[in-house]
Amino acid sequence: MAQKLGLVHLSTGDLFRAHIKNQTPLGRKVKGLMDAGQLVPDDVTWQLVAQRIAEDDCAGGYILDGFPRTIRQAELLGEQETLDAVIDIEVDGDVLMHRLCGRRVCVACGAPYHTSHYTGDTCTRCGAALMQRDDDRPETVKSRLAVYEAQTAPLIAYYRERGLLRPVDGAQETENVFAEILRLLGVA
Ligand code: AMP
User: Fold this and answer.
1) Which atom of ligand 1 is nearest to the CA of 66?
2) What is the tens place of the pLDDT at every residue in 96-149?
3) What does the pLDDT read at residue 130?
4) Non-local CB neighbours of 176 within 8 Å, separated by 6+ positions
5) Which 3 state secondary structure label does DSSP give 12?
6) What is the dihedral of CA 152, 102, 5, 16, to 10 degrees?
7) How far is the CA of 172 from the centre of ligand 1 (A)?
């Protein structure tokens, strides 16, 4: 989506994982929370996002992925930025369990795979090894879904009230979800 629209892809999960990989003080602080499927505190997360948004390449626009995840984060974001739309990709809990527990990602380029479509253990794009994210193990996925219900789901009403919510049926094939989002954004 970011490629197609020429926008920066800003994933808070990716930013945190980079800090963990580089063993920074922030990485050491958030690793335990992420491994347990818990959220990183709002102020820490917002600082990281605010810093990244302030970089030059974000001036032309960006897609936030995995942020905001709490009402407080949405408030902090709203105090500083004006959003065009909020895409809510709707997927049932049991489908999410299946998708996340079977997900494998390339250690080098981050390309995502699923064990039901691909059983190899190397990336077809760059040849590096595939791995399972620590937080994609079944017990952690259950915690993440519970955290979503308690802390993130309230954002649906929050953004609906502000006229920004664009719900999309995420049970469809990837290409259809992609096309649907473009249509909702008026760029298809
Ligand atoms: P993700 O890659 O988006 O699934 O995020 C992986 C993990 O990073 C989450 O389970 C949280 O521990 C942490 N994380 C990512 N984004 C946020 C956020 N907006 N607020 C708090 N924690 C986050």
Assistant:
1) 3
2) 999 999 999 999 998 999 999 999 999 999 999 999 998 999 999 999 999 999
3) 97
4) none
5) helix
6) 60
7) 24
Q: How far is the CA of 136 from the centre of ligand 1 (A)?
A: 12
Give the residue among 65, 101, 63 at the shortest CA–CA distance from 83: 63
- Say if pTM beats, i.e. exceeds, 0.85: yes
From the CA of 26, how far away is ligand 1's center (Å)?
Answer: 14
| Residue 49 burial (C-beta neighbours within 10 Å; 0-12, 13-18, 19+) | buried
Q: Does any ligand 1 atom lie closer than 6 A to the CB of residue 167? A: no
With contact defined as beta carbons under 8 Å apart, do 58 and 66 qualify? no
Q: Are strands 165-169 and 86-90 parallel, antiparallel or unpaired?
A: parallel
Q: What is the dihedral of CA 8, 17, 176, 70, to 10 degrees?
A: -90
What is the token pair recorded at 100?
């996340």
Q: Which long-range contacts (CB under 8 A, 24 or more apart) does 1-4 make?
A: 1/63, 1/178, 1/181, 1/182, 2/62, 2/63, 4/182
* Amino acid in position 61: G
Q: How far apart are CA 103 and CA 133, in angstroms?
A: 8
Rounded-to-integer distance, Cα 94 and Cα 145, Å: 10
Q: Is the CB of 19 under 6 A from ligand 1?
A: no
Q: What is the pLDDT of residue 16?
A: 97
- Binding site membership of 152 for ligand 1 (Cβ less than 6 Å): no
